[in-house]
Hints:
This protein is mainly beta. It has helices at about 1-15, 270-285; strands at about 50-55, 55-60, 65, 75-80, 85-95, 105-110, 130-135, 150-160, 175-180, 190-195, 200-205, 210-220, 220, 225-235, 240-250, 270. Strands 1-4-14-6-7-8-9 form a seven-stranded antiparallel β-sheet, with no helix packed on it. Strands 2-3-15-5-10-11-12 form a seven-stranded antiparallel β-sheet, with no helix packed on it. A two-stranded antiparallel ribbon has the order 13-16.
Amino acid sequence: MELKVLRLIITVLLCQPNLLWAEWNTKDFQKREHSLIKPYQGSGFGVPNWDFQGSTMVTSNYIRLTPDQRSKQGALWNKIPCRVRNWEVQINFKVTGSTKDLFGDGFAFWYTKERMENGPVFGSKDFFSGLAIIGDTYSNHNAHNNHQHPYLSAMVNNGSVSYDHERDGKGTMLGGCEVKFRNMQHETWMAIRYENDKLTISHDLHNKRAWAPCFSMEGVKLPTGYYFGMSATTGDLSDAHDVISIRTYELDTVPGVSKEERPDIMPEAEQFVSKQQEKTDTEDS
């Protein structure tokens, strides 16, 4: 009897192979052309699919965007534009410094039209077009924040707005959370998920191999064909900003949603546009 039951179970599983893989495996959808994983070196001195600039230094264990020295800028940029509608980027990073209370300035993840352009926004250009996820480690005196630093936040720009350093981006911030990621003795991660016009930011700062939510927002419109990048900067204060890996995944598109590219739309966050319109209407009245 038991043998018959066992044979029946095996037959059902063989006829329904999907039951063996009921849990979705993101590795099946990894976009290697947009990922950066050890060993970094390709043939020669370059790293396949990635460009570097500024103070960036490639080692066998990490890619250091800035050393723990003042007035440094560094960046790495993917050479290939991302043409999928839905994606997730998981970043293994490390921020370390010799001081306990005074440090700066921070780093940024980018999905933008422009690439390889130095500038004042955490090592990249201002008035960018696309998405920035900013890990700001220094609180400016004019910001009057209700939160502590380091702080993780998002900004969507169509190229017409300047990032306000004096206020820590307060007027253009979509959302954020406090993230105490400095000088950890274990791996630290963050994830940027863009799916069906919804942006979700998560992190794993406690080596639990599980994502903790930072914030999410609906109504974020991003074109296809932009570039992924990472940058960092130091000023009068400093930290070492290291990237250990970048893993990029293509996500399934739900039925009824187009998979076609949309390179010509304007980057936009509907909630931010609504707030800006309310502000304008109040000022005009």
